[in-house]
Amino acid sequence: MHEFWVTENILDIALKEAEKAQARKITKINLVVGELTGFAPDCIEFYFDTMSKNTIAEKASLQFELTPAQLRCRDCSSVFEPKEGGWQCPKCHSQSVEITGGRDLYLASMEVD
Amino acid sequence: MKKIEVVQNILEANESIAARNQELLDKHKTFTLNIMSSPGAGKTSLILQTIARLKDRLGIAVIEGDVASTVDAEKVKDEAMEVVQINTRNMPESCSLIAAMIELALKDLPLEKIDLLLIENVGNLICPAEFALGEHKRIVISSLPEGDDKPVKYPVIFAGADAVIINKTDLLPYVDFDIPTFRRSVEGLNPDIRLFEASCKTGAGIESWCSWLLGEIKGYNRKAARPRR
């Protein structure tokens, strides 16, 4: 649901960058979406299809690089990707962890004509 | 075909509006809380309890964010100095407030008279975690009937909170909720978090919550009063 605002921003950024590059058409948009953001690529694509109509981004393909959650144990400094059912350090079993990855959300690059 | 490197944070637009909101709030020394929880966990009840105890000392206003009704705003209207209702149903974002909505709402508030602004976010434990509003503190309420595994299922919102209120402690004899387990999982995500056990129904624990809040406001005003070098 919160993909609507996100998609609007993706389109906004893409159109601004295309204008800077004097592009006539945007053919591909490469996005990085972290697992922990809760944003669903399907929803972004769904909104994008409608929002991009009558713009130079119409029919551009959206490519998603999904980055996994990454945690760092505060007790032993291990860095790991969490498994289902709780965030616990696989090495020392501490529950004291900080999020070090998986919250990204950015437009990495675009292909234009 | 040409490839363009962009590397642009998509949430930056919301973050800059949130920063502007905070600047405006700081200009008027309006200490602001973003109150988040699942639907029914007790956001409105906490707001009502807080106002009841502090309204003689502070000018308190509320921004209500709700999908379709004014039920919460009606309850709060008689108690708060000012209430602004944002109905998100007619807006694209219906699962969280975003900074642009708060920017609009702030225009309707006499900020110079408001010491404490309570923002009641939409009932949701996922979306609000992603959208800064301009608040000074992020509060998450988790209630006993929801179970003690909410921090495990929704770690991001708990990791980003400044304080968590375990609400509906009056139900402890009737539900399976292990408070130490809950505390451990929240403190694991955020060792600096403040935890309160409360019942907005009986008033238990509210004194402690209000003391903390007053302390935060005092500290905030002291910082705001220091002349800039």
Q: How does this structure look, described?
A:
- The complex is a heterodimer of chains A (113) and B (229).
- Chain A is of the alpha+beta class and 113 residues long.
- Chain A has one domain (3-112): hypothetical protein PF0899 fold.
- Chain A is 26% helix and 31% strand.
- Chain A has 2 helices and 6 strands; from the N terminus they run H-E-H-E-E-E-E-E.
- In chain A, strands 2-1-6 form a 3-stranded mixed β-sheet, covered by helices on one side.
- In chain A, strand 3 and strand 4 (79-80) form a beta hairpin.
- In chain A, helix 1 (3-20) packs across helix 2.
- Chain A is elongated, with a radius of gyration of 18 Å.
- The model of chain A has no long low-confidence stretch (mean pLDDT 93).
- Chain B has 229 residues and is α/β, with parallel strands linked by helices.
- Chain B has one domain: Rossmann fold, CATH 3.40.50.300.
- Helices cover 37% and strands 21% of the residues of chain B.
- Chain B has helices spanning 12-27, 43-54, 71-77, 99-107, 150-153, 155-159, 179-189, 206-225; strands at 2-9, 31-37, 60-66, 82-87, 116-120, 137-143, 163-167, 194-197.
- A 7-stranded parallel β-sheet of chain B has the order 4-3-5-2-6-7-8, with helices on both faces.
- The longest helix of chain B is centred in the last third of the chain and has 20 residues, at 206-225.
- The chains are: A alpha+beta (113), B alpha/beta (229).
- Strand 6 of chain A pairs antiparallel with strand 1 (2-9) of chain B, so a sheet runs across the interface.
Please write out the topology:
The complex is a heterodimer of chains A (about 110) and B (about 230).
Chain A: H1 3-20, E1 26-34, H2 41-51, E2 61-67, E3 70-73, E4 79-80, E5 97-101, E6 105-112
Parallel strand pairs in A: 1-2
Antiparallel strand pairs in A: 1-6, 3-4, 3-5
Helix pairs in contact in A: 1-2
Chain B: E1 2-9, H1 12-27, E2 31-37, H2 43-54, E3 60-66, H3 71-77, E4 82-87, H4 99-107, E5 116-120, E6 137-143, H5 150-153, H6 155-159, E7 163-167, H7 179-189, E8 194-197, H8 206-225
Parallel strand pairs in B: 2-5, 2-6, 3-4, 3-5, 6-7, 7-8
